Amino acid sequence: MSLRFITFPARIAVDAFLAFSRDDGWAIASHIALSTLMSLFPFLIFVTALTGFFGTQDLADQVALLLLEAWPEEVSGPIASEISSVLTTAHGGLLTIGAGLAVYFSSSSIESLRIGLNRSYEVAETRPWWLLRLESIGYVLVGAFGMIALAFLIVLGPLIFGALVRWFPNLRQFEVSLTVARFAIASVVLVVALTLIHKWLPSGRRSLDEIAPGVAVTLAMWLITGVLFGRYLAEFASAYVSMYAGLASAMIALVFLYWTASIFVYGAALNQAIIRRRNATHAGRAAPTPDDS
């Protein structure tokens, strides 16, 4: 029993990797990584345009911090300065004119995720392309408003906490918890986003118990990859600078996104491998035995 407990998950993991390789998972991951990097700045431009209606730059800055919260510091650090440049040099009038294009280009990353999930779950897309694009734009809009709402809470939270401390000085001991809360918020956002993406983005429908293993494995592997990639960059970041010069920060972000996209696609392949094994088991139990005939 103990040996089966070890070999059975390992067999499913191998089946998922073979399916990942067979369905061009590496190529799809590169497409997702490039689409995500290219969509990041249009998305932030659109967020800046939205936050301009509130008359504050802090919300856009907080959205950028939330997006980069789960990235290793060695990856987010170099690209954060470029993001800051985009957020501080953009102006509301120009952004309003280009907001539609920004949303459209941001939706390309959603489309790349859909392609990867459809291939991993072995389903054919039957919905018209224009409906899929509208759906992707809807995801971008919901994501933008959701991130702004979270950023608003983060900006407002310290102000409320400071006011409460003046009335209740004993609350000062929980000030460190605010930093922990940022990481917790980023983690919750990742879990919710992954769950919704796996459940609603690809063709067909899957139950929560069918997508939970891939979501859990994706989060665990993302955490491990972030730590290892951060340590790798701490030692060999100069190699990127000497090889790519001024493009080093973009290439570092692209390589990191490539590995995270590969893990994302593998998580879907793992779910499909479990579903196949479960269906085969149910079919074997339902098949009539020779004694029944």
Tell me how many strands there are.
Answer: 0
Q: Which percent range fits the helix content? A: over 70%
By secondary-structure content and strand pairing, the structural class works out as mainly alpha
How large a portion of the residues is in β-strands, by DSSP E? under 5%
Shape: globular
Notes on the structure:
This protein is mostly helical. The chain has one domain. It contains 9 helices and no strands.
Task: Please give a handful of descriptors for the protein shown.
mainly alpha; 9 helices
Task: Describe how the helices and strands are arranged.
Elements: H1 2-22, H2 25-51, H3 58-68, H4 73-89, H5 92-120, H6 129-167, H7 177-200, H8 208-244, H9 248-286
Helix pairs in contact: 1-9, 2-3, 2-5, 2-6, 2-9, 3-4, 3-6, 4-9, 5-6, 5-9, 7-8, 8-9
What would a concise description of this structure say?
This protein has 293 residues and is mostly helical.
